[in-house]
Automatic annotation (TrEMBL):
This is Putative D-galactonate transporter. The keyword ATP-binding does not apply. Its main location: membrane. Pfam families: MFS_1. Residues 27-446 form the Major facilitator superfamily (MFS) profile domain. GO terms for molecular function: transmembrane transporter activity. It comes from the Bacteria. Belongs to the major facilitator superfamily. Phthalate permease family. One of its GO terms (cellular component) is plasma membrane. It comes from Sodalis praecaptivus. It is found in: Cell membrane. It is a multi-pass membrane protein.
Amino acid sequence: MQWENKETVAAASSATGAKKTNVRWMVVAVLFFVTLINYADRASISLAGPGMAKELGLSVVDMGFIFSAFGWAYVIFQLPGGWLLDRFGSKMIYSLSILLWSLFTLMTGLAGFVTGATAVMVIFILRFLVGAAESPSFPANSRIVASWFPASERGTAAAIFNSAQYGSTVFFAPLMGWLAHTYGWHSVFTVLGLIGIAFLPVFRKLVHSPNRHTMVNAAELAYMEQGGALVNIDPDKQERAAHKGPRLSYLKQLLSSRMMLGIYFAQYCLNAIGFFFITWFPVYLVQEKHMSIMKAGMVAAIPAVCGFVGGIMGGFVSDMLIRRGMSLSLARKIPIVGGMVLCCIMVLCNYTDSESAVIFIMAMSFLGKGIGGMGWTVNADTAPKEIAGLSGSVLNTFSNSSSITTPVITGYILQVTGSFHAVLWFVIAHAVVVMLCYLFVVGKIKRFILTDTP
């Protein structure tokens, strides 16, 4: 199927006497900046943590509990967050999400009036609430991209907002480090909370459903809709009053679909690879390759940059293949499988002692992970219109479950074997599973159609 129908777009432009607008790219730019703030709030605890622990008298165990609070809430509230998105629409729920996570982040900066066990409880609760408030964010991003972009541009659009998770390190880590050093740990949460609140009016001004956006002309709307965009995805007031939200049977249908389950399990494995880099990669550089902590910190930033570049590359290449007439399935699977093949070269680090070789291999491996990390694009391609938010939440639940399991399993492997040799094989096994899922389980990538069962 050829998604981009140039004759239809030309006819719409001729009928309205106007060239099509490009508001959709402004919308995805807003999503990029919101996600930058989102990830900065997530990472704030790691940079503020040392000063917080010292001032409040917190132990390593205390900090471990505080660090875990966000992740537990983020996974637990995925499905409720997706349900709310489909029930009330992306703009309403995302706006509330931004407001709440910013307020809870701001309040964390005011928690210095307590110490010891009370401080642990207060900060744990606030970080738990930040995780709960942020839970609809990525499903909302995917839902908005599905409504605004034709299939021939959807890969690039999803790659843009997804790349913010890497870009946040570049944009906000220096700021947070400077704030913590100059003004204390409180200022990190205070400033980030205020940035989120300040950006909320921008989000509300610029992000709407395509069919209700005053800046979109008929030519752009026709272009998006003809290309497969779900321009009427959000319910209006009458529809919200008439319907009570997604049914439980819809969730059962998602979890009974071979295509959707293949996508979900692949996303679990993709995120597992990412969490190795986030949690254990610096430790690997210090313990296995005997780098200094300072050097390991600098080296660990290189894969993040490559992941950012790879993510944009994967989306761009996939969309280019669609524009050249390739089927949606092949256009998505080629970068995913190719990226995972490149990711597997990580295991070569087991067979070299050269620091330069290790850095290069890991950088190329994470570049491959970025290229193949198209789960959110595929979700936007396949999620049913009625439950696009819920589908994204299921995807994110599978994805972030690996954030709990991967660090723990890696720790046990290290304890049993005493080296990272088996760990690297464990990590690339996830890349192999991603390939197997897309080659033999997912099948044809297409919009999943719900059956209207009670």
